[in-house]
Design brief:
The chain is of the alpha/beta class. It is 30% helix and 23% strand. It has a single domain, classed as Maf protein (Alpha-Beta Complex), CATH 3.90.950. Helix 4 crosses helix 5. The radius of gyration is 17 Å and the shape is globular. The N and C termini lie close together (11 Å). Bound molecules: inosine 5'-triphosphate.
């Protein structure tokens, strides 16, 4: 039977990626933006991706009565002690564009040669009755000297994929999905949904 599933995110790029990553399963996917009366945005101030993802997924599932997936993700730069990390969207200020965030991050790494980093994602699947599962993924890379590529979103133009050399914004979306933190987490989610 087709399962109706809410994608509990306000980020349209995440919605597009998650839709592609769940393609082929017997799901009817709806996103928060599709809801006639969307619930308020859940807070995201927990210290871990998993806690934030669980909180978001549960809040949307309880408010809508729909099983919900939510993603919490971030970029961890070793030379910055793992920052911006779980605060990736707000680290450089609330209403800062991706371009400006990337510029500011490159500024912090000016002259730094140790540029290793990783993208991390936790996807939570919550049921309205309170059951929750989490699925995680990460991809290693390094921070570029300057932005490259037009695909993807967020920090993609400054993240060089390890053993590839291209940035996440230089690879086509299906290739990003095959290797990305979100793609790896979604592969585990797919397996769980297929078993459900
Ligand atoms: P929701 O909470 O509504 O899902 P958000 O954009 O606020 O949307 P997060 O709190 O998880 O999501 O913030 C994650 C940030 O980390 C995101 O806004 C990007 O800046 C960055 N990020 C996460 N995944 C990324 C990816 O695949 N490519 C580039 N940047 C990414």
């Amino acid at each position: 039977m087709t399962l109706k599933l809410l994608i509990g995110t306000r980020n349209p790029s995440k919605v597009a990626e998650l839709r592609a990553l769940l393609r082929g399963l017997d799901l009817e996917l709806e996103s928060v933006a599709d809801l006639a009366d969307p619930p308020p945005d859940p807070p995201e101030d927990a210290p871990s991706y998993a806690e934030n993802a669980v909180f978001k997924a549960l809040a949307y599932a309880r408010a809508t009565g729909l099983p919900t997936i939510a993603d919490d993700s971030g970029l961890e730069v070793d030379a910055l002690g793992g920052a911006p990390g779980v605060r990736s969207r707000r680290y450089f200020g609330e209403d800062v564009s991706s371009e400006d965030r990337n510029r500011m991050l490159l500024g912090l790494l000016d002259g730094v040669t140790e540029r290793t980093a990783r993208f991390v994602a936790v996807v939570a699947l919550a049921r309205p009755d309170g059951r929750v599962e989490t699925f995680d993924g990460e991809v290693r890379g390094e921070i570029a000297e300057s932005p490259r590529g037009d695909d993807g979103f967020g920090y993609d133009p400054i993240f060089i994929i390890a053993e590839d050399g291209r940035t996440m914004a230089e690879v086509p979306r299906d290739q990003k999905n095959a290797i990305s933190h979100r793609g790896l987490a979604a592969a585990k989610l797919r397996a769980a949904l297929a078993d459900a």
